[in-house]
């Protein structure tokens, strides 16, 4: 095992890759406010490596739930606080940590059966294991009811929605934003954010088609990298669209149809200017898509391609809320843009996305506040939420 750092330690166990990203972001926020805190991120030993940047967390797979492994883990890491996710419990380890004084918090409990790694002839220990948690945050009312049927008291339960990765809005120069907002005033605007070079032909063709219905429509085209930017610039220059190059100091005039940037370094500005955003890395396989919650946090209606496996759960939530819409090629992208340049349509989607982001941010804030209270020695395990 990795060495244990000195000082307070938060241990976070991720059931799935998307949960690992959310937990690492949560730990990073805690550490930004309390630099003395260390964080350990684990995932099931028989499951896939989350394959992510742990953002300053120590990271390792969790060993099987045997008595000896539980004793070894608890004695070595001695976490002050444990954040558990997933329906598969580790009774031996959680019991050992509870006996040692670690505070236990379960996040994102779902209305699904609980699993414990024990032979079929051993009595089910799920209810007893759930009772070890000082606080359980459930995704919905059905999950709360399941927990009540397991004998959990209401003061330990909190309905709070699913745990999602939260990202603060990107930085933006307010003076530059005001200048650009005035310059683009009255023009329909859409954004292609973190676009890859292989997606650019579809994006440019979709824009060309959409301008037939909205003649003053302008595309803010933001490549994912400088390399993508160089390739996209060549494609844009060869098109019959009128292009302005941001890094060359070219400002969009009335005749400009595409404002092309070099990379995503000023994406916070472009998110704030565009009511509709297509998220790159999604039309072609191999990239896995971009985090849609980042865009939703800036108040944009979201369009995306079918290849978003890295953030599938976040896209699913946004689609279910009416905040995002899938496109598959330049034709469906052009149709979606033409429909969403109507301000009321884009605004309704953006509002739905903001509701999703706000729910996730509220849960994160509540978890952090409770964690700090416990680390400071406040609260009791039976205290109401």
UniProtKB/TrEMBL annotation:
This protein's record includes keyword Signal: no
A Pfam family: Glycos_transf_N
Pathway entry: Bacterial outer membrane biogenesis; LPS core biosynthesis
GO cellular component terms listed in the entry, alphabetical order: plasma membrane
InterPro entries recorded: Glycos_transf_N, Glycos_transf_N_sf, Kdotransferase
Residues of the 3-deoxy-D-manno-octulosonic-acid transferase N-terminal domain: 7-161
Annotated GO MF terms: Kdo transferase activity
Xref: SUPFAM superfamilies: UDP-Glycosyltransferase/glycogen phosphorylase
Catalytic activity: lipid IVA (E. coli) + CMP-3-deoxy-beta-D-manno-octulosonate = alpha-Kdo-(2->6)-lipid IVA (E. coli) + CMP + H(+)
Keywords assigned by UniProt, alphabetized: Cell membrane, Lipopolysaccharide biosynthesis, Membrane, Transferase
Localization of this protein: Cell membrane
Family note: Belongs to the glycosyltransferase group 1 family.
PANTHER family: 3-DEOXY-D-MANNO-OCTULOSONIC ACID TRANSFERASE, MITOCHONDRIAL-RELATED, 3-DEOXY-MANNO-OCTULOSONATE CYTIDYLYLTRANSFERASE
Function: Involved in lipopolysaccharide (LPS) biosynthesis. Catalyzes the transfer of 3-deoxy-D-manno-octulosonate (Kdo) residue(s) from CMP-Kdo to lipid IV(A), the tetraacyldisaccharide-1,4'-bisphosphate precursor of lipid A.
This protein's name: 3-deoxy-D-manno-octulosonic acid transferase
